[in-house]
Amino acid sequence: MAADAIVLGAGIVGVSTAVQLARRGKSVVLVDRGEPGRETSYGNAGLIQREGVVPYGFPQQFGTILRYALNNRIDAHFHWRAIPSVSSFLAKYWWHSNLSRHQLIARAYAPLIEHSIATHNELIEEAGAQDLIVKNGWTEAFRTPSKRDGEFREAERLSREYGVAFKRLSANELAAQEPHLSRDFVGGLKWEDPWSVKSPLALTQAYVRLFEKLGGRVLKGDARSLSKTTTGWRVVAGDGTVEAKDVVVALGPWSDTVTKPLGYSFLVGVKRGYHMHYGAKGNATLNGWTMDAERGYFLAPMAQGIRLTTGAEFARRDAPKTPIQLERAEAVAKTIFPLGERLDKEPWMGARPCTPDMMPVIGKAPRHEGLWFAFGHAHHGLTLGPVTGQVIAEAIMGEKTLIDISAYRPERFNA
Fold this sequence. Notes:
- The protein is of the alpha+beta class.
- The protein has a domain at 1-57 and 97-131 and 197-267 and 355-415: FAD/NAD(P)-binding domain (3-Layer(bba) Sandwich).
- The chain is 33% helix and 26% strand.
- It has eleven helices and 22 strands.
- Strands 4, 6, 7, 8, 14, 15, 16, 17, 18, 19 and 20 form an eleven-stranded mixed β-sheet that branches. Strands 1, 2, 10, 11, 12, 13, 21 and 22 form an eight-stranded mixed β-sheet that branches.
- Helix 5 (116-127) crosses helix 8.
- The longest helix is centred in the middle third of the chain and has 18 residues, at 145-162.
- The two termini are 33 Å apart.
- The model has no long low-confidence stretch (mean pLDDT 96).
């Protein structure tokens, strides 16, 4: 089979890239080993985070690092045996998270985030997926005045510098918004710009249907079969092979299975995360996406039930599940909201691909024609899927990109 482009990876980034290329008249084949949207893109808090202009950094305060070293938290957990293999990533992650460097990174990162809502909206409308979207922001709930006041100050800064909108909530206003939350909270902060997604899987699938409507094809195949030809690239997929001039690697935490054999070395760590769906006891209702800020977990009213999501687990990508954080979070969450029974047979686990400078890898491979990279989106894969797809498609087409993507170039890892 011949095509103009092959996209490897059918998560939200790969699917969005395939759609954006198909919208520009390219014949595109989307290849994945499984069903679209079933890996990392399936399990997240379901937020298009317009406010997320500052990527999640590594703690800089020695006392905070010591508390994390106790390994008894919800927002972070690590496997001791994995530390040697991830030490280089963690060291550079810590270095880039220094205040001055982190602020420079945020300024380079913000343009992607700033276009997240608009680029999603185009695809949502074309895909007819408006019923999956809630345009009501999300809320941080605070247990202590010190945490509340510090987050208020940070929100004011982000509002001045990046134009994000927020609202301070008193304890009574938070209770009015979420009447079934306990009164453990002294107030809240509502980020007003973000959109919420009732089912990230359903949204990805809606984009896949749009892709197919535009003439695209989805095939099962092994990305590791990618090889160079005299005119482009070949991959084994479906019942044969697909050849194309251009190929986009959008394999998230598995991108190294393709990039490494081609001679590229990216320092990409993995932050694993867990979720579980629950019913609600009695007539209890969770009205909106809510984070217990001091404890570090999310409660989200999803289509499948109330989704509880954890923070980051630092472990080898393919290590067995260890849902310790989920168990800790569930115990705390049941004290502040009347969660009912678990609705899933077992906890879901996914792996977020993270670079040490907290920015994704987006752009043309430095040593191969027709090879493009789009991975490393960490906590913001859902948020940044469509804008990443658009700028990659524009670059492939030789168009002026929506934003300057030089800050995300692969050359920062590979000269």
